[in-house]
Structures are given as structure tokens and as C-alpha cells.
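Supplementary Methods, section 5.1.

A reviewer requested that the exact input to the structure prediction be made available. We therefore reproduce it here, unchanged from the version used in the analyses.
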Amino acid sequence: MRTKFIQATRTIAAILALALTLGIVTTAKAAEPKPLRIGWTAWSDAEAVTHVAKQILEQRLGYKVELIMTDIGLQYQGVARGQLDLMLMSWLPTTHKAYWDKVSGDVVDMGILYDNAKLGWAVPDYVPESELGSIADMMKPDVQSKLKNQVQGIDPGAGLMRASSDAIKSYDLNSYKLLSGSDAAMVIALDRAIKRKEWIVVTTWTPHWMFSKYKLRYLQDPKQALGGAEAIHALSRKGFEQDFQKAAAFIKEFKIPIADLEGIMMKAKDSSYEKEATAFIKSHPEMVEKWLVNAK
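The structure derived from this sequence is encoded cell-by-cell as follows.
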């Protein structure tokens, strides 16, 4: 009997030890910090800003960051529903107005990342301004012929494409087709046209590295169909500031001059956004410290 009692006691002790061990493991897993999820789109300025923010959050503030690449409209929905913690690409007040109006009550505006941004249609500088100086000139029969009644656009969900559709209506360019594609596809079409000295109109924006590489000019937009000056905001889900206090303090101070941003973008096309974000952070210690002043 005594032997059986001892064996039973040992068995119970082993079970309790195992339960305790499992409890410790479970607690440890539960205590693991959840990743900070940032939505982004493959636009050159968005990619530059996002990689700079990611490296600061990970290397200086100790967060684990997960980048979620998705359509801009889905980013707004994701932040509003709490599926994303942040997005760093909200063009306001005009470009993303339709998205903003739907979710403004369910997201938090964390402030402006950079301003003096602009949307527009651009042409190579060799296209005579006397023949094609404004969007209105695209109605001329000879201009239509040289442009093949096409405007080269970017991804269909972009606010720029919505604005471009409105511009086509505003200027009665009903014979034109707005071609969709990625940012990269738009640049490839522009590069091909320039090498052939062909006429082309592309939908674009500032900041973009293409203005450093190519001689381009914006077409005048007297009806302001594509809007005026814009500011790019960071948006977070509700509760973000409580869950990621240091990250929120950083994002509120994260301001980057548009000239610096274009410099990152221009260099990154020949290397990578990750590498150029690293180089920028290393070469701008005073700016980085300003961003982190309230996050330490």
C-alpha cells in the first residue's frame, strides 16, 4: 500500500509540475509583444517613408514591425477596423477625401509627415509648351493624335486615378482612355516614350524621383480638377496610442522634408529603400533625435 501511495504521490507531483511548466510556457507566449502592423502601397514616397519609420521603430524603440502591402482603400478600412495599426500615406484634404469621409470617425489622425505635395499630369519637357501646356490643350486634334488618346495612369485604387477620372470629365476628354498600372509600369511607359521622343501624358505626383531623373513639367490645370497642395498624414487605429505609447510619441514627431524624401527615393531606385533608409537615418542623427524626443 505504501509503495502504491508513494507512486501515486509521485505521479500527482509530476502532473502538477507539468501543468506548472505548461502554464509558464503559456504565460510566456501570451507575454510576447505583438507586432506593430503598418499598411503600405508600392508608391515610391510611401515606400521611403515606411522603411524609415520601420527601422526607427525596430532599432531605436524595440518594436517588431510587420509591413502589410495592400491597396490604399483597404488600408483605410484596415486601420478603421483595427486590423492595421498604422498607415503613413493619407493624402489630405482632397486626394483621399472619399476614403477619409468614410472612416474619419473610426481612425486617429497622428499628424502631418510632409506637406507641399502635389498631384498632376506631366509630359516630357521636349513636348512644346506652345502646343501642350495645359490639360485643356489635350482637346486639340493634333495633340490627341500624338498622344494616341491615352493618359498613362497608376494603380486603379489610387486617389490620383479618381482625380484623373474627374479631370477627364471636367475637360471633356471623353475620347481619352485612362490606362491603369503600377507606379513602376507608369515609369516604364514614360521611359520608353522618352527614349523614342514620343509624346506621353502620365499621372504623377510630387514627391517622386522621376522629376530628378527626367526633364518633365506639369500640365496646367486651370480648373483645379486634380486639386491643389496636399499634406500626407499618418493615421492610426483607435487604441494605438495606449497599446504602443513610444511608437505613437515618435509618429507624432515624425516630419521629413520633401527634398530629403526625394533624395531617398532617387537613390533607392538603384539600390533599395531599406538600404537608403538606413543611410538616411545614419546621416541625420539630429533629425532622428527630434523625432524621438518624446519617445524615450
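Residues 1-30 have pLDDT under 50 and may be disordered. These observations are discussed further in the main text.
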